[in-house]
Amino acid sequence: MSAPADASERVAAPARPRTEVRTDVQGLRALAVSAVLVYHLLPGTVTGGYVGVDVFFVISGFLITSHLLRRPVRGVGDLLEFWARRVRRLIPAATVVLVATLAATLLWLPTTVHARVAREVAAAALYVENWALARSATDYLAADELASPVQHYWSLSVEEQFYVLWPVLIGLAVLLAVRLRGRGQWVPTAVVGLVVVVSLAWSVHLTGTNPSAAYFVTTTRLWELALGGLVAAAVTARPWGLPAPVRAASAWAGLVAVVAAVLLFDGTTPFPGVAAALPTVGTALVIAAAADGARGGPGGLLALRPVQWLGDVSYSVYLWHWPLIVVVPYALGHELGGVELVVVVVASLLLAAVTKRWVEDPLRRQPLLVRRRAATFGLLAVCVGVSAVWGVSAASASDARAHEAVASAPARVAEAGECAGAGSVRDASCDVRGLLTPPEAAAQDKPAVYADDCWNDPPFTTRNSCTYGSDDAPVRVALLGNSHAGHWAPALEAGEDAGDWQVDTYLQSSCYPVEQLLDYEAADDAQGCLDTTRWAIDSVVAGGYDLVVMSARTNQLLADVPDDEQSEAAQDAYAGTLATFTDAGIPVLVLRDTPAMPDNVPDCLATGPVSWDECGAPPSQALEPDPLAAAGRADTSGLVTVREVTDLMCDDDVCHPVIGGVIAYFDHGHLTATFARTLTPEVADGVRAALRTGAAG
Question: CATH top-level class for 420-696?
Answer without folding.
Answer: alpha beta
